Amino acid sequence: MRSEEVSSADVANMMQGLLDRQAIQDIISCYSLGQDSHQGEDSAILQQWEETFSETGTVDYSAAGGTVGSYRDLAKWMRGDENTKGSMSRFSNWQHMLSLPLVSIAGDTAHARTDFFATHRGRADQGWNVHYNATGAFHDDLVRTPEGWRIQFRRLEVYFGDPLEIAKTA
């Protein structure tokens, strides 16, 4: 058996690839952390999302009847503002579970696809005592910034579940 020599530059490149992949996984998880850490009336999801998306990050959540625009538009669609209720206002609790992402990296850009399972409990106090599940995938285009990897664009794909139940606002 012949052993191949690996240069220190090759090892450094392989290590950087692994570090990039781990950083991208962490950023993708940070999105769900922002969503799931702020239940019910707590709408402070931007605390995590400011570190998840690039400054100009955009989303396409039209597959769930949602917004196409900035990640701040997505936060407003989900959580509402002082004048309107968001799509999540009909739910008391939720959790988003993620698969490991499939990641391809090309220099300072990357693409990731992450499957998810999301479960939501309706607000019984509002006469909507349901348990809603959905599955799908996040398709993310990421960029390396001075602060680290950030999502530049996210597209939601729904496999099953009634996405219009999420889109309805109270």
From TrEMBL:
InterPro entries: NTF2-like_dom_sf, SnoaL-like
SnoaL-like domain location: 18-155
Pfam families according to UniProt: SnoaL_4
SUPFAM superfamilies (UniProt xref): NTF2-like (SSF54427)
Gene3D superfamilies linked to this entry: 3.10.450.50
Name of the protein: SnoaL-like protein
Species whose genome carries this gene: Edaphobacter modestus
